[in-house]
Amino acid sequence: MDRFEYSRDREATNAARARALEALLIEKGVITSETVDKIMAIFATEMGPFNGAKLVAKAWVDPAFKILLAQDTMAAVEQMNFATKGAGAEGEHMKAAVNTPEVHNLIICTLCSCYPWPILGLPPYWYKDPSFRARAAREPRKVLGEFGLDVDPGKEIKTWDSSAHIRWFVVPERPAGTDGFSEEQLAALVTPESMMGVAIVKPPGA
């Protein structure tokens, strides 16, 4: 994973740049401090991986919903009554790739960093990395191994390329040991990485 690592101070550096840019835009009257606060509140409460986790959990307990999610993803999203729904160009055309015992799905964006913001939030640094984007398309099994995910050699790996036209996400397999779990309990197990295909959902306590 060294190839995808960044300097340790990247968060502080980028935060300083963001504050400087925000101050300049406010000074110029382009935005107000309330504008920034509103956007941050949306990503904290309305648009993020908590929405994707709810979709996955419902698919795990409702076979009919799982079929709908795979065949008509946006119709399934509409049923969830998320505050942001499709939320503009970042989520108007989302598509779910469902993991099975025979197939593991991986999401990339070879052109830039297209990502389903309404249900996964903002993409991580490594998702935008040119090396990850190129290598995951050419050698997905090896790249997944570098993430610590060793996919069984007998399982097919399908790579889906997100774009401005379709933004993909993964419905991971339900982990063992979750019989009787509520949707809320199941959603708490789902991670953004599992919905990107670089991880699996681990059983409780693992």
From TrEMBL:
Residues annotated as binding Fe(3+): 109, 112-114
This enzyme's EC code(s): 4.2.1.84
Listed name of the protein: nitrile hydratase
Keyword terms: Iron, Lyase, Metal-binding
Gene Ontology MF, one: transition metal ion binding
Catalytic function, reaction form: an aliphatic primary amide = an aliphatic nitrile + H2O
Domain Nitrile hydratase alpha/Thiocyanate hydrolase gamma: from-to ranges: 14-199
Pfam families the UniProt entry points to: NHase_alpha
UniProt record similarity statement: Belongs to the nitrile hydratase subunit alpha family.
